[in-house]
Amino acid sequence: MPEHVAEGQLGSPTQEVRDFLRRRREQIAQRWADEPLFRTVFTVSRDEAVEAGKAVVDALAQVADGDRVEDPDAAGFTVVREQLARMQVARSRAGLSTAQVSTELDTLRPPVENLLVDDLADAPAEHLRACTNTLIVLLGTLRVVVMQTALSEGQALIDRQRLQLLEVATPVIKLWDGIVAVPLIGTLDSARSQVVMETLLEAVVEQHARFAILDITGVPTVDSLVAQHLMKTVAAARLMGAECIVSGIRPAIAQTMVHLGLDLGTVVTRSGLADALAYALHELGAGIVNAKPHGAGQR
Question: How confident is the model at residue 272 (pLDDT cuts 50, 70, 90)?
Answer without folding.
Answer: very high
